[in-house]
Amino acid sequence: MACSATAKIVQPPMSINSTRSPDKSDTCTKLLRPSAFLGSNKKLFSVSKTISPFSRRSATVVAVSSDVIKKKKVESNPVSNLLVTKEEGLMYYRGKMFGFVHLYNGQEAVSTGFIKLLGNRDCVVSTYRDHVHALSKGVPARAVMSELFGKTTGCCRGQGGSMHMFSKEHNVLGGFAFIGEGIPVATGAAFTSKYRREVMKEDCDDVTLAFFGDGTCNNGQFYECLNMAALWKLPIVFIVENNLWAIGMSHLRATSDPQIWKKGPAFGMPGVHVDGMDVLKVREVAKEAITIARRGEGPTLVECETYRFRGHSLADPDELRDPAEKAHYATRDPITALKKYLLENSLASESELIAIEKKIEEVVEDAVEFADESPVPARSQLLENVFADPRGFGIGPDGKYRCEDPKFTEGTAQV
Ligand SMILES: Cc1ncc(C[n+]2csc(CCOP(=O)(O)OP(=O)(O)O)c2C)c(N)n1
Ligand SMILES: [Mg+2]
């Protein structure tokens, strides 16, 4: 039986140095005493608690009937168990996508659990794993795939690429390659919403979600923004996608207190830990945090414990992570877990799920075909949207600034 997503308050996780022996049972939610977040009596929840042998952490996540899932995987078509589709693999290695592509496999429950609760006016700020956040927010698959391919039909006309998904229409404020860089942008967006509501007296209850990783929580911008957001009670949710690794650096080696959620109360906002491999649990926590933000009651820090099934990027041979750790998390694939929940609770039949998978394949194939056939941007686009002194762009062999050469803006200059 899958764990109920009914949100219940759990006790703060025990200390990382605790000698309490790990409870390896598939314990579902334990009803415990109210959250001690700075005396807050807000209904914020962490949903489950099982000690992972791999994390040494106290606040960890529930393994969802791993034996059942393992069996199902073996029984099903082995091709569907691959961690990358033919399109994903071939398109990148054929050079169809440029730069690094950072996959999101394994972390899907976080993006979906949060973003699907938003309205169009709400904002999302992401990292370089942004293509899934963009899809969750409604950016069409064609526009996302074309951006990955660097084509004019991409959501940034091919100028952003994999790490810079942006859509004004969908209020996706970016993809950021520098870690932590998106957090102040998100904080600014949340400030805008508050300003509109309280100063401009506009009807505005928009909320901003800021997604970032565990490694990023050791970056100064994170702390500065938590402080400002708490001080001004900004309508924002800070969502840490704690996949236990920052490229090849283990979270436990890099952070003085690996329980990131605790940093919320230190700044005067609720901090919550949730099983980020379970979309229904993430959704329960997300509902509460988004509601608090929308009511004007301020920010929340949510730590979602998750795992990436691939290396840091497609260029990462992924040799540092323990195979046993990888195998452990592979049994908790959030998509497989949701399927199981839907079937067990008669919310969907096998054939309905197969039909959905088929539909997804069609959407992906259509997006790949569309992106492949789309035109590349004109060279003249190179200088558009560049916030720099154009005179600083460079001097050509004739001693003149390149930007002064009309051929350059026409896209016909030899550079
Ligand atoms: C300011 C800055 N410093 C260093 C880097 C190099 N870098 C790229 S990804 C990364 C690790 C980030 O890990 P985490 O925040 O956990 O995100 P994850 O990749 O696990 O999603 C680092 C250090 C960077 N992009 N930006
Ligand atoms: Mg990480």
Automatic annotation (TrEMBL):
GO molecular function, one term: pyruvate dehydrogenase (acetyl-transferring) activity
EC number(s) per entry: 1.2.4.1
A biological process from GO: pyruvate decarboxylation to acetyl-CoA
Catalyzed reaction equations: N(6)-[(R)-lipoyl]-L-lysyl-[protein] + pyruvate + H(+) = N(6)-[(R)-S(8)-acetyldihydrolipoyl]-L-lysyl-[protein] + CO2
Residue ranges annotated for the Dehydrogenase E1 component domain, each copy included: 90-377
Cofactors, names only: thiamine diphosphate
Superkingdom in the source lineage: Eukaryota
EC class of the enzyme, as a word: oxidoreductase
UniProt keyword terms in alphabetical order: Oxidoreductase, Pyruvate, Thiamine pyrophosphate
Purpose: The pyruvate dehydrogenase complex catalyzes the overall conversion of pyruvate to acetyl-CoA and CO(2). It contains multiple copies of three enzymatic components: pyruvate dehydrogenase (E1), dihydrolipoamide acetyltransferase (E2) and lipoamide dehydrogenase (E3).
Assembly and binders: Tetramer of 2 alpha and 2 beta subunits.
PANTHER family, sorted: PYRUVATE DEHYDROGENASE E1 COMPONENT SUBUNIT ALPHA (PTHR11516:SF60), PYRUVATE DEHYDROGENASE E1 COMPONENT, ALPHA SUBUNIT BACTERIAL AND ORGANELLAR (PTHR11516)
Name assigned to this protein: Pyruvate dehydrogenase E1 component subunit alpha
Native organism: Olea europaea subsp. europaea
